[in-house]
Amino acid sequence: MEMGKKTSDEALVVCSDKSTGVGMTVWDLENGDQLLHIPTCAAAPHGLLCLRNEFLVASQCNRHGSLGGGSIFFWPLNKPQSPLRSYTMEAIGPLSCTKDGIYIAGGASSGNAYLWEVANGRLLRTWRAHHKSLKCLVFSDDDSLLICGSADGIISVWSLISLLDVEDTGSSPPLLHYSSEHGSSITGLVTMSASARCICVSSSLDGTCKVWDLVSGRLLQTQVYSTSITAVALQPVKQLLFSGSVDGKIFINELDLSPVEDPLVTNEDQASVLKGHNGSITAMTFSRLGLISASEDFTFCLWDTINQVIVRRFHHKKGAVTNMVVIKQSTLLPISNHQRVANQFRVSLLQKYPHSSNSGKGMVTFHSLSACLNKQTSSNFQGNNLLDRIIFDSERELTPAMMQMKLEKSIDDRMWVTSMTKHVMEMNKHLQSRLLDLMQSRLLCPCEGDSFPKKKRQKLQTESLGPEEEQS
Length: 472
Known about the structure:
The structure is a single chain. By secondary structure, the protein is α+β, with helices and mostly antiparallel strands. 16% of the residues lie in helices and 37% in strands. The strands form 7 sheets. Strands 16-17-18-19-23 form a 5-stranded mixed β-sheet. Strands 3-2-1-29 form a 4-stranded antiparallel β-sheet, with no helix packed on it. A 4-stranded antiparallel β-sheet has the order 4-5-6-7, with no helix packed on it. A hairpin with a 5-residue loop joins strand 8 (92-97) and strand 9.
């Protein structure tokens, strides 16, 4: 993109995984000013996200030698205060959330995956997703799929609908796709929508990036490099792939998403190269101003990718940046009480252990509860079951305040059920639409029929793991 005089409302949040004392820093991308510092944060790689432009969420690295579970912190962007601290059964690494902020998924070094509902904190499902440590985790562009990558190079894909099947939470959810094409640890997963297809790009320490069609499970393209790839980013408009390497270079390749008999294989000789870092690339993301890359050289850079030059270099003296999230600067401003009511969004402590289904428990709204009770503490964050406990303690007193709280809880329960039903129906529409598009594509493209030898195809294996594989 052409760099010139622009007015941007964007800010960049960065953090390291080295020490909780480093914390998070928010930077103005346009003038390089430091806007805000949030203490006590050390997030694992891929462990920082922005929830609904209202909260920063980070999985916390355990201190060296520490035992026990992990923790996930929530910070409200428009009201500086202590974070909401949720404690998990084990240390969580990568995090991902749906665009509407309803669900958060996390992965652990044990290979276990977790899915929470944000509004009431319920742990909806925990399952063994991989045999090795989970390194990356991301929802598809339409939020219908959850894609996970592990240290052994395996990529697994689940349908979100299957993960939300409350009648089957006791068993492992069925896999939609899985792949063992990579020969080493997965270092990045990014998704995009292109025409009628849902695309995922994976990067690995084996020196390749692979482009997948998530609907058909087909491998479309493989980029081969002479060095390990440690980070990946997509520019969806121009369909450009940016691959950061262990030697500090960033390769730029065009994506070719056209249907072919065999997946394309290209090498780094066909790529443009950005050079400006002296250490391994640790993270990359895009803002309206351009590509942003971070490195182990304790810097992160804003790039003009057309002229292949660095527009601005930021120095992070407290350690290498391992996570970056672009947010709007306007989200850092305090909001009025009227806006709070209009933009009401519920966040609760995430449950450490799965519990029996009860839609009313743990659902706490930031504004109405504090307005009803004068004895509340100054913190807006409340733990699970607080509202139920208050109602129980007040049942002997048939006061208007108690009746109002019971009415609000009943309304909350009904809204939750309505929201869940609507969300599942929308995901079902997406899946039906993509299935029809896939069938139409196969009818119009006989070249993808059964006439090609099977040995020339490289597909994601669509069958579920067998019992003997699950026990290994």
